[in-house]
Specification:
Layout lengths: L1 H7 L2 E2 L11 H13 L11 H15 L8 E4 L2 H12 L5 E6 L5 H7 L3 E6 L9 H7 L4 E7 L11 H13 L3 E5 L25 E6 H4 L8 E4 L2 H12 L7 H13 L1 H25 L2 E2 L7 E5 L9 H12 L1 E2 L1 E2 L12 E5 L4 H16 L2
Parallel strand pairs: 1-11, 3-4, 3-5, 5-6, 6-7
Antiparallel strand pairs: 2-8, 7-8, 9-10, 10-13, 12-13
């Protein structure tokens, strides 16, 4: 969709990278680190400064008493996910996931020899069918992949649903890989709760974080895994043969940010709430029906009120090529036979980009 957007000069609300939110102080910190060095391989596990900063961040925001030696730095969160899944899955292990889901999960699990077991979240509020979830657990269940706040549907798991999941993990002696890259991006009072923070879950969870999402610097590709030593050891062995290590200058800047940029982290949800609401109002004005969104960068919308005749792939191609606005078909986040009447729009864009995109959509659909 991004290539199609470029070809047609479309406003790209498909790809999930933020615009106009980069913190200048952190970019200056990167410049200082680049001049100061060093420029050789840092430790495979990450620089001491960044591991200490991540551990302090876990304690400060989530009350998780994490030690620096329980942190491993990776080249982005997708590499962290790959290290977790390759390190923990043996051929034949079953892995429970929730649809719609981030698109890297299934290819990695299948390459590791795992067997995906998919539980569908139910629109429009993306609720959980607890009976369906419990039925997925069995003697071969190795782990659950939990993404909250969720890409693409903006769901934030609440305390009751997390407690229910925690009970199933304990009952079946299973693990959880927790993709929490949007941990600071929840809205409307829907507080993020790390699964790791629940009673009995500390030793069962590997938590994935992302500097790119925390600081709106997705091109930096700095992520991490937080886990107790017995769980982190096999993950680290996989990481060793994936990217091995990450730029020391980037790690230095991110460590500085985690230590000093609390005001930026705390202010970002309000900024993105305003952008989400701006996008939702524009979509409504154009004739679409936005779904609830309580976290992440993404808002899904039902285009059936427009009377559009095709499916979501047809819709997204049409608005990219003919209206000049790019979005992502939500069915792409299902492993087949997903709902085909929703499109996902990214609201982590400038007000000008959102306004221009909504003006184009409104004008296009007004023509009939």
């Amino acid at each position: 969709m991004s290539r199609l957007a470029q070809a047609h000069g479309a406003v790209n609300l498909g790809q999930g990278f933020p615009e106009g939110l980069e913190p200048p102080a952190l970019i200056s910190a990167l410049a200082d680190a680049a001049l100061a060095g060093p420029h050789q391989y840092p430790s495979m596990m990450g620089t001491p400064a960044l591991r200490e900063a991540v551990a302090a961040h876990e304690c400060r925001y989530w009350k998780n008493a994490v030690r620096p030696d329980e942190v491993m730095v990776t080249s982005g969160a997708t590499e962290a996910l790959a290290a977790c899944l390759f390190g923990l899955i043996e051929p034949g292990d079953e892995v429970i996931l929730f649809e719609p889901l981030y698109d890297s999960y299934l290819p990695i699990i299948r390459r590791a020899g795992g067997v995906p077991r998919l539980v569908r979240l139910l629109p429009p509020d993306w609720g959980i069918d607890r009976e369906a979830l419990a039925a997925m657990f069995g003697p071969k269940t190795k782990l659950v992949v939990l993404n909250s706040p969720t890409n693409p549907c903006g769901k934030v798991w609440n305390a009751d649903d997390l407690a229910f999941l925690a009970g199933l993990l304990e009952a079946h002696d299973s693990l959880a890989v927790c993709d929490e890259v949007y941990e600071h991006l929840s809205y409307d009072g829907h507080a993020h709760i790390p699964l790791m923070s629940l009673p009995g879950m500390r030793a069962r969870c590997a938590k994935v974080g992302s500097a790119g999402k925390i600081f709106s610097l997705t091109g930096w590709k700095v992520g991490w895994v937080v886990a107790e030593a017995p769980l982190l050891a096999p993950i680290a062995k996989a990481h060793q043969f994936l990217t091995f290590t990450t730029s020391p200058t980037l790690q230095a800047a991110v460590a500085r940010g985690l230590d000093d940029a609390g005001d930026y982290i705390d202010s970002l949800p309000a900024v993105l709430t305003a952008r989400r609401d701006r996008l939702a109002a524009g979509l409504k004005a154009a004739g679409l029906a936005p779904l609830p969104c309580f976290g992440s960068y993404f808002l899904s919308a039902d285009f059936r009120p427009l009377g559009f005749a095709g499916d979501d792939r047809d819709f997204c191609r049409t608005i990219t090529e003919q209206a000049g606005v790019a979005a992502i078909p939500v069915s792409a986040f299902f492993d087949g036979n997903g709902p085909d009447h929703y499109a996902r729009f990214c609201f982590a864009k400038t007000d000008q980009a959102i306004d221009e995109a909504m003006s184009r959509l409104k004008a296009f659909f007004a023509k009939g």
